[in-house]
Each structure stands twice: as structure tokens, then as C-alpha cells.
Amino acid sequence: MSELRSRAEDQQKIYQRWAPVYDRVYRGILRDGHRKLAALAAAAGTDILEIGVGTGLTLGHYPRHCRVTGIDISEHMIARAREKAKRENLEHVQALEVMDAHALTFADRSFDAVCLPFVITLIPEPERALDECARVLRPGGEIILASKLGDGAGLQGAIETAVAPLVRHIGWSSAFRIHRIVAWAERRGDFAAADILPVFPNGFFKIIRLKQRGLAG
Ligand SMILES: C[S@@+](CC[C@H](N)C(=O)[O-])C[C@H]1O[C@@H](n2cnc3c(N)ncnc32)[C@H](O)[C@@H]1O
Questions:
Q1: Any idea where the Methyltransferase type domain is (predicted)?
Q2: Tens of pLDDT, residue by residue, the chain (217 residues)
């Protein structure tokens, strides 16, 4: 089995366990990130793709004039998101599908914004996933990420690196570095890191906005 397939199956098993309790654990702590990310996406346009939508905690934060599509690799998390969309009458949610961020099935230039709330650090080949986000984005659109995005500096960086192999088993990633996203944008040349915003609690999480330069054609 390929490394990518095996990592995908690990994520599916981990989030099958998380699905029934996820909202109770994460709703409060991630709310500020979800709210800010949804507002930034809506400011970029109406057609929004959310990668790693999970149980759909962000969905209710998008304004109702938006058209939101969510994907996730875990069928158990997507099932919760579908229940939530129905129960809360989230009519702006167009589709919720099981899909891997490394291989999106959407046509090129389908969305004004692509959001990745608390997922990029868990994706085995984040640059490949970001290339997919770029492909489905319209010129001038934005990729908006929220996560624990450390810079690796000092004692905190050393601890994050040391505990990474342990926390991986519960679906966390502590050693992902923000430079990786900035380097991806610089290498491509058609994206600029527009903003890095602190998120509750006290900047522990961050949002980074990558703006497509809107080349013609
Ligand atoms: C920490 S949860 C975040 C869920 C949601 N975005 C939120 O903020 O509450 C990470 C989610 O990413 C999903 N995920 C992990 N790897 C993925 C991949 N390669 N493609 C799509 N989704 C993935 C997991 O199944 C899980 O639902």
C-alpha cells in the first residue's frame, strides 16, 4: 500500500473515533478561528470550498448568501456535517462529499475562496493539496488556512517537534511550520501571503490568507 493511502486510512480511523465527541471537545476552542475564517472567505466571494470540513462546525458561520461546498476524507465526519446542515437548515450548504484534499474532483476555477480550517497540518503532502486548492480557485481568489502554525523557534518549537510522533495518533500535528505555506506561495509565484492573524486562545492558532494574484487568462 502506498504511504499516502496508508496515512489516509490512519486519518479515517482516527476521525471515526473523534466523530461522536468532536463538537463537544472542539466547538468552543475553535469558534474564534471558524468565525474569522468564514468572514474572510465570504469577503473573497460567494462560492466557497471548505477542505476537511469535519462535522461542519464552520458551516453555520458563513453568511447565507454564500454557496458552500465541503469535503472531508472521513465518511464519519461528513455524516455528522450532513446531519448538522439538515438539522440547522443550512441552505447555503450545496454539497458535503467524501474526498481527499490531494485529489479534488472539482473543475478548474470553480471557487472564489478555498478554506482549510485546522486541517493542513494533518495532510501528508500539503504542497500537493495546496496546488489542488490553487487549481480550483478563480483568478483573484483566496486560500485561507487556520491551524496551529508555529515558527519552530525556541523551547516551544523544540517541544512541539519532540511530541509530534505522540500526538499524531490522536489526530493532532504540533510540528507543522508556517514557513512551509509561505515557501509554497513563493515557489509558485502566483500567490502572496496577504495576512497572518492571531486566533484564540491568545494567538495559539493562526489564520493565514494566501491571495491569488489574479493573472489574466
Ligand atoms: C481537526 S479536524 C478539523 C475539522 C473542521 N475543519 C474543524 O475545524 O472543526 C481535521 C479534519 O480533516 C480531515 N482530513 C484529514 N486529512 C484529510 C485529507 N487528506 N483530505 C480531506 N480531509 C482530511 C479529517 O478527517 C478531519 O475531519
A1: 49-145
A2: 688 888 889 899 999 999 999 999 999 999 999 999 999 999 999 999 999 999 999 999 999 999 999 999 999 999 999 999 999 999 999 999 999 999 999 999 999 999 999 999 999 999 999 999 999 999 999 999 999 988 777 877 778 787 778 777 777 777 788 999 999 999 999 999 888 999 999 888 999 999 998 654 4
Indicate the helix (H) or strand (E) that contains 88. Answer: none
**Is 161 part of a structural domain of the chain?**
yes
Domain span including residue 79: 3-212
Pocket probe mutation, ligand 1, options 119, 132, 176, max atoms within 8 Å of Cβ = 119
Cβ count within 10 A of residue 53: 29
Atom from ligand 1 closest to the CA of residue 53: 6
- Please choose, from the candidates 174, 170, 169, the residue with its C-alpha nearest in 3D space to the C-alpha of residue 18: 170
Task: Answer whether residue 188 is part of any domain.
Answer: yes
CB distance 212 to ligand 1 below 6 Å: no
Instruction: Tell whether 217 is covered by a domain.
Output: no
- Domain count within the chain: 1
User: Judging by DSSP bridges, how do beta strands 47-51 and 191-199 pair with one another?
Assistant: unpaired
